[in-house]
Automatic annotation (TrEMBL):
The lineage of its organism: Eukaryota, Fungi, Fungi incertae sedis, Zoopagomycota, Kickxellomycotina. This is Mitofusin. It holds the Pfam family Dynamin_N. It is found in: Mitochondrion membrane; Mitochondrion outer membrane. It comes from Coemansia thaxteri. InterPro entries: Dynamin_N (IPR045063), G_DYNAMIN_dom (IPR030381), Mitofusin_fam (IPR027094), P-loop_NTPase (IPR027417). It is a multi-pass membrane protein. SUPFAM superfamilies: P-loop containing nucleoside triphosphate hydrolases (SSF52540). Residues 163-428 form the Dynamin-type G domain. GO terms for molecular function: GTP binding; GTPase activity. It catalyses: GTP + H2O = GDP + phosphate + H(+). GO terms for cellular component: mitochondrial outer membrane.
Length: 774
């Protein structure tokens, strides 16, 4: 007895230690899922293996088939025992048939598809993997993120369950199988009503009165979720005398009865000294669908299912259904075949029922000596029987000593599954990141020559364009300067072509000469403008050719591309060049007026002045004239040789002759004088005002103004191409950096998940190890 007690204590400590370790690992697993979700959401979307669906060990189509069938058959939360689902059941049966425990099953499933974090993409799935694969990566990442959150929430539930020190035993089975009688027998008291007709209408949870401060009491609970023993508003007290009616009628519509009772006798299941046990009697199956649904809904908080079979009926259809679905959650079911006292051919009955169990719950069948019992609860109430005592011991062992299997294993299995999935998606994400890095490297390598060519082309085109502009402007400047300088120099040629109509029309003649020269200069300026237009046109054509060449460079935006800057109409090379009006060709010409000096030479002017001032003395006038000074001197010398009187007469005659000749000469040469003087004067004026240089400057500036936008456009377009390429390269580099980060992150995550999975697995290690550690 003592050794039994100390062994039980040791097992309790082992169990407590396992609970603690598993709780810590569950917390770590949850943190890992959160971290993965955060990373996937904010940094790099996790790579969900849609294309193949299988684990790393799977190959091609087989992996896809397996994954697809899982996707089609199971719901998102079905794996890992979260909710019952066909796929999960299939796996459980498979595990059981192989006689393996949960850990072995996990090992065997390492090559299967995702188990817990599988996405339900049925809406998008039409039997074609490509359709699934075409789902946007971000949508998948979002779905996956939701799946991670669901999984974390489920871990919270598991944590609560593992941390719950109580053990809940649900007693269920067909109508009238003797469930209530069995619970009474286990409690050693006739507390629950039993009847030949179906009488249990609601769940009756029987717990030790120590959980109600030692007071025996019955609470009718309208809402299980809201129930609190300490809050009278959440329940209705039921008198013991009314219990039978309430259980049979449930007129108040309670969801549950909570029955606090003091144990009668020693060593009852409820009062075992270590764990709080709750025995839950339930309405018989197939009473109505609502009750059945409630039953299923409650499975998650149930640690042990005791299924009561009426030995006279064997398994009914609803019993079979229940067992099949309960097997999803509880791999092993504790089966009590009751009313065995009423059976005549017991061995045959036993064989037939065991055969049914083998098909319905292979794991239970495998441990049938401990899990399947043929008893008579009715007889037990009257007097203790050995089969019942054996059943009770087994149940206690199952509920208390093997709590790991009933309570911790599902949590452990879930954690193993989810960590396996994390390793899988992490490995897939590492592979995807590696592929992405290689892809980006290839893109960078591939685009480098294009980028370098672009830089060279840009520099060359810019140089050429500047040269075209400079050369064009220089040519315009040079041509204009030379052309107008020449025109200025040869103004007299223009004047010479103006017909002379005689002395009487001399003034009008001079006016026409002046006008002709002005018109000529205007014409020459216009000529220079035309040349400038031609030079501009030529430069534009050359620049347009450079732009055409630019568009031909690989990677240049197409003309329809939004990023390609359209050539404004003003920059069309086909547009005729128009320079702004010249305005004033020359200020000097505009203000030019005929002057007296235009009609006479400067030298004659002086003679003419002398002649008019000295009317009495032609010789003096002649003497005063510089041009005839030499003649005057000669005459003086001659006069000294001749007599004074003779000389004076000769001199006067000479003076008259010279004066008359001079006047004649001046008059007859007046048109030439006008042409000469006028052209010379204009030429001088034009030189003074920098006529040629000013127009050369004007036209060079106009040419620059007309051509420069083409150069800018070309340079700007090149710059945009270079910038676009640089942006592409920078983007590649940024994405490569992110991929490298994620490669490292997911690899570390994989290792972390692997280590954690090993630690979770170690929680299920042999008891001897635990015992040695403790
Ligand atoms: N012969 C025999 N009769 C039993 C045994 N156990 C229960 N009964 C009888 O079977 C009838 C039904 O028993 P209950 O305990 O009410 O059965 P139940 O499964 O709780 O019934 P519901 O909750 O109404 O579905 C009662 O008349 C019991 O006396 C048994 O071991 N042998």
């Amino acid at each position: 007895m003592n050794s039994n007690h100390s062994e039980q204590q040791l097992q309790q400590r082992v169990y407590a230690d396992r609970c603690r370790r598993l709780q810590a690992h569950l917390v770590d697993t949850k943190a890992l899922l959160r971290e993965l979700g955060d990373y996937s959401r904010t940094k790099w979307p996790v790579h969900y293996p849609l294309g193949r669906g299988g684990r790393a060990g799977d190959t091609g189509a087989a992996g896809l088939r397996r994954s697809s069938s899982m996707v089609m058959g199971g719901s998102a939360g079905s794996a890992g025992g979260e909710h019952p689902a066909p796929m999960r059941r299939a796996m459980t049966l498979e595990d059981a048939q192989g006689g393996r425990d949960a850990d072995d099953a996990d090992e065997a499933e390492d090559s299967a598809g995702l188990r817990v974090l599988r996405l339900d993409v049925r809406l998008a799935y039409h039997g074609d993997a490509d359709v699934v694969g075409s789902l946007e990566e971000s949508s998948i990442a979002r779905l996956f993120d939701e799946r991670l959150a669901q999984s974390a929430a489920h871990i919270d539930k598991l944590l609560a369950r593992v941390g719950d020190r109580s053990s809940k035993i649900l007693v269920t089975g067909d109508l009238n199988a003797g469930k209530s009688t069995l619970v009474n027998a286990l409690l050693r008291q006739d507390i629950l009503p039993s009847d030949q007709q179906p009488c249990t209408m609601l769940f009756c949870e029987v717990v030790d009165a120590s959980l109600n401060a030692g007071a025996e009491d019955i609470h009718g609970v309208p809402s299980i979720a809201a129930y609190s023993r300490a809050d009278p508003r959440t329940f209705e007290r039921v008198a013991r005398s009314d219990l039978e009616d309430v259980v049979a009628e449930n007129g108040a519509g309670f969801q549950q009865l909570k029955i606090y009772t003091r144990s009668r006798g020693h060593g009852t299941l409820l009062h075992n000294g270590s764990v709080d046990v709750a025995l839950i009697d339930s309405p018989g199956l197939n009473r109505d669908s609502l009750k059945t649904t409630q039953l299923f809904a409650r499975q998650e908080e149930i640690d042990v299912v005791v299924f009561v079979v009426n030995a006279e009926n064997h398994f009914t259809l609803s019993g079979q259904d229940f067992l099949a679905s309960a097997g999803n959650e509880k791999a092993r079911i504790f089966i009590v075949v009751n009313r065995f006292d009423a059976i005549r051919r017991r061995d045959r009955c036993e064989r037939m029922i065991l055969d049914q169990i083998r098909d319905l719950s292979p794991l239970t069948y495998a441990e049938r000596d401990d899990l399947v019992h043929f008893v008579s609860a009715h007889e037990q109430l009257a007097a203790a029987s050995e089969p019942f005592a054996r059943m009770e011991r087994s149940l206690r062992a199952f509920a208390l000593e093997q709590r790991f299997k009933s309570k911790l294993a599902p949590a452990q299995r879930y954690a193993m599954n989810v960590l396996g999935d994390v390793q899988y998606v992490a490995a897939e994400s590492v592979a995807a990141a590696t592929r992405r890095i290689q892809q980006i490297n290839a893109q960078l390598r591939e685009s480098l020559p294009r980028y370098e060519t672009l830089l060279v082309e840009r520099a060359a085109a810019s140089r050429t364009a500047e040269a075209v502009l400079d050369d064009g402007c220089l040519e315009v400047r040079r041509h204009t300067a030379a052309h107008l300088a020449n025109a200025t120099l040869h103004l007299q040629d223009v004047a010479d072509k103006v017909p002379y109509a005689g002395l009487l029309a001399l003034w009008a003649y001079a006016e026409r000469v002046l006008l002709a020269m002005v018109r000529h200069l205007e014409h020459e300026v216009a000529e220079c403008d035309r040349f400038a237009c031609f030079a501009i046109q030529q430069a534009r054509t050359e620049l347009s050719a450079l732009d055409v060449r630019r568009r031909g460079i690989e990677g240049a935006p197409s003309p329809h591309d939004a990023s390609e800057e359209l050539l404004p109409p003003s920059l069309s090379p086909d547009m005729s060049v128009e320079l702004p009006p010249v305005g004033t060709v020359s200020n000097a010409l505009d203000s030019a007026q005929l002057e007296l000096s235009d009609f006479v030479d400067l030298d004659l002017t002086r003679s003419w002045g002398a002649l008019t001032s000295l009317t009495a003395s032609a010789s003096l006038a002649l003497l005063a004239s510089k041009s005839v000074a030499a003649h005057a001197l000669a005459l003086l010398r001659l006069s000294s040789a001749m007599g004074t009187h003779t000389a004076r007469r000769v001199m006067v005659a000479s003076a008259v002759l010279i004066g008359a000749g001079s006047v004649l000469y001046v008059v007859s040469d007046m048109d030439a004088t006008v042409r000469r003087n006028l052209s010379a004067r204009l030429s001088l004026m034009l030189d003074d005002e920098g006529f040629a240089a000013r127009h050369a400057e004007r036209l060079a500036t106009e040419a620059s103004r007309a051509v420069r936008p083409f150069v800018w456009h070309l340079q700007h377009s090149f710059q945009r191409m270079v910038e676009a390429e640089e942006l592409r390269r920078a983007d590649h580099l940024r994405r490569r950096h992110a991929a490298q980060d994620s490669q490292v992150y997911f690899d570390e995550l994989r290792i972390k998940a692997h280590d954690l999975a090993n630690a979770v697995r170690a929680v299920g290690a042999a008891d001897s190890t635990d015992a040695a550690r403790l």
